[in-house]
Amino acid sequence: VGSPAWLATQLDARMVAKRIAPSGTRVEDLPVRPGTKVAGELGGRPLLRYVDYAAVHENQRTTMTFVCPTPYAPADQVEYLALPRPDLVRDFVIMLDPAAITEIAGPKWCDLGQGIEYVLLNGYPPQAVLAPGWAVKIR
Amino acid sequence: MNSWVAEGVSQVAHELAQKHDFTPVYEAADRHGVTEWLYRHVPDPAEPLQQYVSLAGWVVDPLFFQFESTAGLANASGFTRQTVQRSSVTHEVVESGQWDTFSALLVPALERAAAMYYQALDADRAGEAVVEMPYIARRQIVS
């Protein structure tokens, strides 16, 4: 049975065409833009942070945090995003409003993966978490 | 992960990676719930294969962290990666500054990345296209 992950990634790549840095690009070499610019690039779509049940109520971060624009089923996340701790089931997603985040680096192709990533250099503030204000179950 | 733990791990991992000619792609970045350090090395500019090693860590409970190291290869058309080692580290070990624990995790990954690289070169010269399929199944490296 196929997965829409490949198609979703390709469509996102098309949406941000010519702006995606190659994998291997150091974070410090990525272009940094205000979140409002990235919000325009994504056409109103959120940035996604996949988490497990234990992090459902996380509502802010202050350190460098990777996010992606593409919806993936838990079974596809490890392969597409080359995630560490591959046995962790990340079946919840925190949806973030890029416009509420000051600085965002990227996008870049994932290292050792096939997905597209952005980097929140200083994490994200509570006001960036979209309704309902916590992670929602992927279903 | 506490920032001072991340800083301590960053320092030892950075120094070790540099010693093996690896440069950081990112250090102490959260990737969907896990803190990760990723380093990259291009042994030969004429050869498109790139080596990667990573260290990742997360808090298990008030007593333990868990860390894992991986080795990987990538070129323009594919990539492969495997988990090399996973270890539990007590908070006590970290708090007492026993950073050599992290060298013991990262060194086997650096060695594994080198072995994968030479295996890929040999396979390429023999007209084969396969390195090996790792624990985290990915596309095969092709020449």
Detailed description of the structure:
- The complex is a heterodimer of chains A (139) and B (143).
- Chain A is of the alpha+beta class and 139 residues long.
- Chain A has 3 helices and 7 strands; from the N terminus they run αβαββαββββ.
- Chain A has a 4-stranded antiparallel sheet. A 3-stranded antiparallel sheet of chain A has the order 2-4-7, with no helix packed on it.
- The longest helix of chain B is centred in the C-terminal third of the chain and has 26 residues, at 100-125.
- In chain B, a hairpin with a 2-residue loop joins strand 4 (64-75) and strand 5.
- In chain B, helix 1 (3-19) crosses helix 3 (100-125).
- Chain B is of the alpha+beta class and 143 residues long.
- Residues 131-143 of chain B have low confidence and may be disordered.
Outline:
With 139 residues, chain A is of the alpha+beta class.
Helices, strands, pairings?
The complex is a heterodimer of chains A (139) and B (143).
Chain A: H1 5-15, E1 32-34, H2 35-41, E2 47-51, E3 65-67, H3 74-81, E4 92-96, E5 103-109, E6 116-120, E7 136-137
Antiparallel strand pairs in A: 1-5, 2-4, 3-6, 4-7, 5-6
Chain B: H1 3-19, E1 23-31, E2 35-41, E3 50-59, E4 64-75, E5 78-90, H2 91-95, H3 100-125
Antiparallel strand pairs in B: 1-2, 2-3, 3-4, 4-5
